[in-house]
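Format is chain and fold; as here:
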Amino acid sequence: MAYKPQAGPQMAAPNVIPMADIMLVLLIIFMVVTPMLQKGVSVDMANVNNPHDMQDADKDDAIIVAITRDGGIFLGNTKIQKEDITGQIKDRISTRLDKTVYVKSDARAKYGDVVAVVDEIRSAGVDQLGLLTERIQKNQPTPPPPPAD
């Protein structure tokens, strides 16, 4: 006589609990990774009332030069020296039709540092230079008063 294994009862509904577990793990991974995907170096830009929208600065191939509070200069994510800016920018804009370079500076960066970087960018043959700023939030709701006890 041959051995014949017994099959268990069939389930009528699919088990979605493992799928829900996987989806929650993926959600947590994306929540952790998303803030790290910010383009370039993070600086506290100056706040202005009437900024001009520059949608091209959000493109992946946009050339962005960042100036930090302590005078550090970054081309994209790479820290560079002031003397190297002209050569690096020339290399990047040589094959492009749109020769726009965007500068985002920390609001507390020294004015002289920003002017020196802009001068170096202009000497690279840049047609247009965009200064990136943040819009002042006008209608900020006031926080509710603390409850009286």
